Automatic annotation (TrEMBL):
Source superkingdom: Eukaryota
Sequence ranges assigned to domain 26S proteasome regulatory subunit Rpn7 N-terminal in this UniProt record: 115-218
Protein's cellular compartments: Cytoplasm; Nucleus
Entries under Pfam families matching the protein: RPN7
Name under which the protein is recorded: 26S proteasome regulatory subunit Rpn7 N-terminal domain-containing protein
Organism the protein comes from: Puccinia triticina (isolate 1-1 / race 1 (BBBD)) (Brown leaf rust fungus)
PANTHER family: 26S PROTESOME SUBUNIT 6, COP9 SIGNALOSOME COMPLEX SUBUNIT 1
One GO cellular component, as annotated: cytoplasm
Length: 258
């Protein structure tokens, strides 16, 4: 199948090759194809299309580009998902332009931009970013390691919601440098895994999945070790609850692994 970069090709003519692509996509959704350019998605389709926020948007974008009979409805669902679940203004504008270009070519009504959402979202982005950066600066100045990690983690989640995948991945990597437990390592690896899936970078996703599994195995092993020691001694362990984990070196090795 020929590759169609986002924003470059909105829809392709229903040639034999294109029709086969549409049929495969619709079979994946368990739907029947229709020649109507603006075929609406019913409730059954919605429940099958919406997976998680960014992955659902990516799948709908694919249908919008390659399956003309449902392109307009797919783009409309993308716009709805963006407004409800993200702060990705640039993707909203890109999707709106793709929808209207196709609608104009088919003499169908155009959609207008939701300026209220755009303006309010931009204000919220600026306010949230300033607050998160201030928290990070405060924790860094006071050398609060756990606070630094949580601040980086919150900042990464913010960048992901805005759609800045590169900044989000860089910040999550910074957060991993300040993880002190296997739980933190697993949590951040899962966050990076979701980010890699958002970007459809499956090689990177596989790497983060392995790291998350390793961190979870370490955490489980630590809990089993503590439980065994408690059972052997017959009493509560004398080790302080905030003392270093006995597998700290293994955790650090996991965090340093790329």
């Amino acid at each position: 199948m020929q590759s169609h970069p986002r924003g470059k090709t909105i829809a392709i003519p229903l040639s034999r090759h294109s029709r086969q692509a549409c049929h495969r996509a619709l079979m994946w959704l368990n739907l029947q194809p229709s020649p109507v350019p603006a075929q609406p998605f019913n409730s059954r389709t919605r429940s099958q299309v919406f997976f998680t926020c960014r992955q659902a948007i990516n799948r709908l974008w694919f249908l919008g580009q390659l399956c003309s009979p449902i392109s307009l409805s797919a783009y409309e669902l993308v716009l709805e998902a963006i407004v409800q679940s993200t702060w990705d203004i640039s993707l909203y504008k890109e999707t709106l332009a793709a929808h209207n270009k196709l609608a104009l070519a088919n003499n169908l009504p155009l959609l207008t931009a939701n300026k209220d959402w755009i303006n309010s979202t931009q204000d919220e982005i600026n306010h949230t970013l300033a607050r998160l950066e201030n928290n990070l600066k405060h924790n860094t100045t006071n050398c609060i390691k756990d606070g630094i990690r949580s601040s980086y983690q919150a900042l990464g989640a913010h960048y992901r919601k805005v759609g800045d995948v590169g900044s989000a991945h860089r910040v999550f990597s910074k957060a991993r440098e300040h993880a002190t437990t296997a739980l933190h390592a697993a949590e951040l690896s899962l966050a990076s895994l979701n980010l890699a899936l958002d970007a459809e970078n499956f090689k990177l996703a596989q790497s983060h999945a392995a790291k998350a599994q390793g961190a979870l195995d370490t955490l489980i092993g630590t809990l089993e070790l503590k439980a065994a020691k408690t059972k052997t001694s017959g009493s509560t362990s004398t080790v302080g609850i905030d003392s270093r984990d006995p597998t700290e070196k293994d955790i650090q090795r996991l965090l340093d692994y790329e």
